[in-house]
Design brief:
mainly beta, Immunoglobulin-like, 39% strand, 6% helix, binds CU-O-CU linkage, 3 domains, repeat, 4 helices, glycoprotein, oxidoreductase, six-stranded mixed sheet
Length: 541
């Protein structure tokens, strides 16, 4: 394994899309940000310099950081922000991840423009578990706001309603040629007939699950969240914010120009059905069409299409890539995920339903981030920063997915509560979507771990019937999973990575509303089962 070093300078730089020029936060002036390349098991050191007027933290999404939460990144969970004028050297400790991950800011809404791909190749002399592709191409789905995203966030928090939607979705930073203003910069992928390409896709969108499709071509999924999957042939993919999907594209159609496109899948809430496009251009002599063919998408609200794709993913689960899904759980957790309402302060009115304000909760607790980070407080035994009573179950049972819910359940409690896990406990966690105010998918992301997705379904989880249908043979290994609207998802993992680990919905508006919680995984008994000490340059609050 190698040590690789990267330099990230956060600064304001100016960019133009949709004929609008604006200044925004970027790393090294690039949008999307630089791609990090490494091999399995490498140590990547990133020197992050803050030369902007805004606090920042950077998170290495999907990297487990064994015994080393200090560089994980979430603001006020594992660190205080890197303040303007300061520097923090982050150690990105790779272990068994192999495939595509990404990095992004984990501070307020700055990930809107501060993100990039993190590509982890197999170790030298090792091959992919699929035929070697002719070329590899990262494709990052993102968004463009004509307005300043910090202002969009502040206005959204003040209004109590839904945030403004972006002005365009992006493929590799470009809105595509359905937007006349940005046409000439459309992302183009030039392919040779007969060759196969490995596409490494990241959904870096803020608030939407996306469909993606290429006109006239099927794709073959081979991995997700830096773990290989069984080959899955499909004509579209569903990808949630935080998730990555690796797929093969066979250039096997008559040479021409074809659109690749991505469109919102939205279940409830405000959405914008804008489509972003890129172009697949075959190399060769032919007359290109005046306008390439657009792929046909599932309906924007087609939950079945979204769920069907996700539930077809399977681990390789063979000799070379075995799985180790816990067959029993010593720790059973049941977490309800809810959107809730709260009256507006004073006599003001808010823009949510009933003129109240939106918030969100897990087991009826709305996460309030502290002013000192939880990791620091845990390590140095600082009292009064967090409490250790995050509940294993919701405070009461109800019919989670019915449409009308008594008003009391709209009122969660604020809290900075952590749930403590014993070292090496085997955890089963069932996420139960609820319909307290609105039933909506929640792409749940866990830091510090990958987990096996052993089951999911629509409606209320049935603890007597559903566990007998779990897939313990080849469940996919992921770190972000969309819990379907009005449904549930069960995951399992072994708590073998001591530290402080954030778990939250990867919709940015839901995190802002408090849809997250924190696990503390205790140290094991032997010295190499405990957290490593912090680096000397940890940012201070
Ligand atoms: Cu990709 Cu806590 O996030």
């Amino acid at each position: 394994a190698l040590v690789r070093r990267y330099k990230f300078v956060l600064r304001n730089s100016s960019h133009t899309r949709l004929c609008t020029n604006k200044t925004m936060l970027t790393i090294n002036g690039q949008f999307p940000g630089p791609t990090i390349y490494a091999r399995r098991g490498d140590l990547v050191i990133v020197d992050v310099y803050n030369r902007a007027g805004h606090n920042i933290t950077i998170h290495w999404h999907g990297v487990k950081m064994p015994r080393y939460p200090w560089s994980d990144g979430p603001e006020y969970v594992t660190q205080c922000p890197i303040s303007p004028g300061t520097k923090f050297s982050q150690r990105v400790v790779l272990s068994d991840e192999e495939g595509t991950l990404w990095w992004h800011a984990h501070s307020e809404w700055s990930r809107a423009s501060v993100y990039g791909a993190l590509i982890i190749l197999p170790q030298k002399r090792n091959n992919y578990p699929f035929p070697k592709p002719h070329a590899e191409v990262p494709i990052l789905l993102g968004e463009w706001w004509n307005a300043d995203v910090q202002e969009v966030m502040e206005e959204f928090l003040a209004s109590g309603g839904d945030p403004n939607v972006s002005d365009a979705f992006l493929i590799n930073g470009q809105p595509g040629d359905l937007y006349p203003c940005s046409r000439q910069d459309t992302f183009k992928l030039r392919v040779e007939f007969g060759k196969t390409y490995l596409i490494r896709m990241v959904n870096a969108v803020m608030n939407n699950i996306m469909f993606f499709r290429i006109a006239n071509h099927n794709i073959i999924v081979v991995g997700s969240d830096a773990a290989y999957t069984k080959s899955l042939r499909s004509d579209y993919i569903t990808i949630s914010p935080g998730q990555t999907i690796d797929f093969l594209l066979e250039a096997n159609q008559p040479p021409s120009h074809y659109y690749m496109a991505s469109r919102v899948y939205a279940s409830g809430g405000n959405f914008d059905n804008t489509t972003t496009t890129g172009i697949i251009e075959y190399i060769g002599n032919y007359t290109p069409p005046s306008s390439p063919l657009l792929p046909i998408f599932p309906d924007f609200n087609d939950t079945a299409a979204s769920v069907n794709f996700t539930t077809r993913l399977r681990s390789l689960a063979n000799k070379k890539y075995p799985i180790d899904v816990p067959l029993n759980a010593t720790e059973k957790l049941f977490f309800t995920l809810s959107i809730n309402l709260r009256p507006c302060p004073g006599n003001t009115t808010c823009e949510g339903p009933f003129q109240e304000r939106f918030l969100a909760s897990v087991n009826n607790v709305t996460l309030v981030l502290p002013r000192t980070d939880i990791l620091q407080a845990y390590y140095r035994r600082i009292r009064g920063v967090y409490e250790t009573d995050f509940p294993d179950n919701p405070p009461f049972r109800f019919n989670y997915t019915q449409d009308f819910i008594p008003r009391d359940l709209w009122r969660p409690e604020d809290g900075t509560d952590v749930n403590i896990l014993e070292y090496n406990s085997t955890v089963e966690l069932v996420f139960q979507g609820t319909n307290t105010v609105a039933g909506i998918d929640h792409p749940m992301h866990l830091h510090g771990y990958s987990f096996y997705v052993v089951g999911s379904g629509i409606g209320n989880f049935d603890r007597d019937r559903d566990p007998s249908r779990y897939n313990l043979v080849d469940p996919p290994l992921m770190e972000t999973i969309a819990v379907p609207r009005n449904g549930w998802t069960a995951i399992r993992f072994k708590a073998n990575n001591p530290g402080v680990w954030f778990m939250h919905c990867h919709f940015e508006r839901h995190v802002s509303w408090g849809l997250g919680m924190v696990f503390i995984v205790k140290n094991g008994k032997s010295p190499n089962e405990g957290m490593l000490p912090p680096p000397p340059d940890m940012p201070r609050c």
